[in-house]
TrEMBL record:
This is Large ribosomal subunit protein bL33. It holds the Pfam family Ribosomal_L33. Keywords: Ribonucleoprotein, Ribosomal protein. One of its GO terms (cellular component) is ribonucleoprotein complex. It comes from Acetohalobium arabaticum (strain ATCC 49924 / DSM 5501 / Z-7288). GO terms for biological process: translation. It comes from the Bacteria. InterPro entries: Ribosomal_bL33 (IPR001705), Ribosomal_bL33_sf (IPR038584), Ribosomal_zn-bd (IPR011332). The lineage of its organism: Bacteria, Bacillati, Bacillota, Clostridia, Halanaerobiales. GO terms for molecular function: structural constituent of ribosome. Belongs to the bacterial ribosomal protein bL33 family.
Length: 49
């Protein structure tokens, strides 16, 4: 049931993180505030394809 997804920074569009999510429970795209090593600050990372 769990699917591997990648998270991309909304500021610089770098794909920094990969994680898993349960598609049956979470149908919308994930948005998580994480640290971006390219920007050097905490930004919102959104799920990409």
């Amino acid at each position: 049931m769990r699917e591997t997804i990648t998270l991309a920074c909304t500021k610089c569009n770098q794909r920094n993180y990969s994680t898993t999510k349960n598609k049956s429970n979470t149908r919308d795209r994930l948005e998580v505030k994480k640290f971006c090593k390219f920007c050097g600050e905490h930004t919102i990372h959104k799920e990409t394809k």
